[in-house]
Amino acid sequence: MDEAFVEQCVLDLYKIEAIKFGSFTLKSGMQSPFYFDLRTVVSHPKIMETVAKLLWAARPSSTYDLVCGVAYTGLPIAAIMSLREDIPMLIRRKETKGYGTKKLVEGSYTKGQRCLMVEDVIVSGSSVYETVETLRELGLEVKDAVVFLDRQQGGAANLNATGINVVSVLGIIKLMSILYKHGCITSEVLESVKEFVSTHNETSIKTKDKASYKNGVLVKDRKHCTYESRVTTTDHPLASTLFELMSTKKTNLCVAADVTTSQELLALADKVGAHICLLKTHVDILQDFSQDTIDKLKALAEKHNFLLFEDRKFGDIGNTVAQQYGGGSHNIVEWAHLVTAHGLPGDGIIKGLMSAANGRTRGCVLVAQMSSEGTLTSQEYVQGCTKMAEKHTYFVVGMVSQSNVSSDPRFILFTPGVQLKKAGDTLGQQYVTPKAAVLERGADVIIVGRGITQAEDPAAAALIYKEEGYAAYLERIEQKLENPSAVGS
Ligand code: 5BU
């Protein structure tokens, strides 16, 4: 590659403000003193063509059947390569369409074809990996990626660990040196970027459900950790208690006690108590809720060693939820170890709940996804909920989910919509089996309501669900992490 050609390209990019200095928040939340935004090249076709030429020249091998750009900036660059080199391209959507074919990848391909990945910038390598993972699932061979700028923050090592060879046109230090050499930046800016890179080189990528790579080193994924090992990994005392009792009682079953009288509730809790780790309630369904009911329920929770989980699904501003949680006729904070809350209102809801908890050992579970048909939770919403959980690990113990929304072993994923016999009800509920919930959807705790409460013998049914759920968990932790270079292939 002609050095002068690279230098000129860097200067051109500087001129069109594709490189900026200041304080920027990256996708991961990391603060950076510089930002490289190659999106601006779409307004400068000649520069974009040069970028494409440089990327093509950097490719590690000469034999590819396809090129695929990582959305969004990689797409037009890959399109230029495709045109110039007469090589077909693929587009991998960021989200599946909600209509039509629901395809994630557009374009023609056949299994075994070799595809070159094209990306503008890598930080951790996550965006490249996400795209590669999809293409590999379709049977394509993806081993190489060309990247215009490597921010030198661990991304190349992370990708190497998943079997992707990364070649970049430039590293950030080289780019900065070129700008400095041509008087575009001061030595202070150069030093601040060097300092930033040397102190921010720990990034990680998470693969869909198998593993996570931090600076190229494999970190154990939530789905492969035992409940026992997670007793000490979590920041939350109630999560520790729950992991402890799940592993000693050998159960990941939560019964949803959706009954209408206190008598039924207490009778059910006594019958299934030996088989569960949590009893989930909707106390507003009870016709005769009273303090006496709660006292008896607490005694049963002690007797059988399970926790109480009120599925209140708080969803208002902090000030309101604080009053709902810590007062009213149900005074939930007084007796429920865990409560559900929506992420929708933002952080304030957690602060509100915490203020009502007022130092008591309590926790909340954020509803990230729902089991019902037509649920509105988008990928962005789910990510927003997990981010919120990450910010409040001292109060949020996990998420209600229908998929593997987090590989962080600190979080407990609770999955409702579990039944052995039915596929759904007439009001939109959708069921999967305990095995599918644990193995395919990544559940740590399965939530079963009518599958047990409407069984002829709820205790016997609870035992079956407990055994199925726990066997699936044992199968999951036994699953070996695949050879990193084979991940996704
Ligand atoms: P079922 O009888 O197994 O369908 O009861 C499921 C329970 O879980 C019930 O209490 C619901 O309110 C609760 N639930 C759910 O079904 N789906 C969800 O996404 C959430 C909660 Br969040």
Automatic annotation (TrEMBL):
<keyword id="KW-0511">Multifunctional enzyme</keyword>
<dbReference type="GO" id="GO:0044205">
    <property type="term" value="P:'de novo' UMP biosynthetic process"/>
</dbReference>
<dbReference type="GO" id="GO:0004590">
    <property type="term" value="F:orotidine-5'-phosphate decarboxylase activity"/>
</dbReference>
<comment type="similarity">
    <text>In the C-terminal section; belongs to the OMP decarboxylase family.</text>
</comment>
<keyword id="KW-0456">Lyase</keyword>
<comment type="pathway">
    <text>Pyrimidine metabolism; UMP biosynthesis via de novo pathway; UMP from orotate: step 2/2.</text>
</comment>
<dbReference type="GO" id="GO:0004588">
    <property type="term" value="F:orotate phosphoribosyltransferase activity"/>
</dbReference>
<dbReference type="InterPro" id="IPR004467">
    <property type="entry name" value="Or_phspho_trans_dom"/>
</dbReference>
<dbReference type="InterPro" id="IPR011060">
    <property type="entry name" value="RibuloseP-bd_barrel"/>
</dbReference>
<protein>
    <recommendedName>
        <fullName>Uridine 5'-monophosphate synthase</fullName>
        <ecNumber>2.4.2.10</ecNumber>
        <ecNumber>4.1.1.23</ecNumber>
    </recommendedName>
</protein>
<dbReference type="InterPro" id="IPR014732">
    <property type="entry name" value="OMPdecase"/>
</dbReference>
<keyword id="KW-0328">Glycosyltransferase</keyword>
<keyword id="KW-0808">Transferase</keyword>
<comment type="pathway">
    <text>Pyrimidine metabolism; UMP biosynthesis via de novo pathway; UMP from orotate: step 1/2.</text>
</comment>
<comment type="similarity">
    <text>In the N-terminal section; belongs to the purine/pyrimidine phosphoribosyltransferase family.</text>
</comment>
<dbReference type="Pfam" id="PF00215">
    <property type="entry name" value="OMPdecase"/>
</dbReference>
<feature type="binding site">
    <location>
        <position position="371"/>
    </location>
    <ligand>
        <name>substrate</name>
    </ligand>
</feature>
<feature type="binding site">
    <location>
        <position position="450"/>
    </location>
    <ligand>
        <name>substrate</name>
    </ligand>
</feature>
<dbReference type="InterPro" id="IPR029057">
    <property type="entry name" value="PRTase-like"/>
</dbReference>
<feature type="binding site">
    <location>
        <position position="258"/>
    </location>
    <ligand>
        <name>substrate</name>
    </ligand>
</feature>
<dbReference type="Pfam" id="PF00156">
    <property type="entry name" value="Pribosyltran"/>
</dbReference>
<keyword id="KW-0210">Decarboxylase</keyword>
<dbReference type="InterPro" id="IPR000836">
    <property type="entry name" value="PRTase_dom"/>
</dbReference>
<feature type="active site" description="For OMPdecase activity">
    <location>
        <position position="313"/>
    </location>
</feature>
<feature type="active site" description="For OMPdecase activity">
    <location>
        <position position="316"/>
    </location>
</feature>
<dbReference type="InterPro" id="IPR013785">
    <property type="entry name" value="Aldolase_TIM"/>
</dbReference>
<dbReference type="InterPro" id="IPR001754">
    <property type="entry name" value="OMPdeCOase_dom"/>
</dbReference>
<feature type="binding site">
    <location>
        <position position="449"/>
    </location>
    <ligand>
        <name>substrate</name>
    </ligand>
</feature>
<dbReference type="InterPro" id="IPR023031">
    <property type="entry name" value="OPRT"/>
</dbReference>
<feature type="binding site">
    <location>
        <position position="429"/>
    </location>
    <ligand>
        <name>substrate</name>
    </ligand>
</feature>
<dbReference type="InterPro" id="IPR018089">
    <property type="entry name" value="OMPdecase_AS"/>
</dbReference>
<feature type="domain" description="Orotidine 5'-phosphate decarboxylase">
    <location>
        <begin position="252"/>
        <end position="465"/>
    </location>
</feature>
<keyword id="KW-0665">Pyrimidine biosynthesis</keyword>
<feature type="binding site">
    <location>
        <position position="280"/>
    </location>
    <ligand>
        <name>substrate</name>
    </ligand>
</feature>
<feature type="active site" description="For OMPdecase activity">
    <location>
        <position position="311"/>
    </location>
</feature>
<dbReference type="GO" id="GO:0006207">
    <property type="term" value="P:'de novo' pyrimidine nucleobase biosynthetic process"/>
</dbReference>
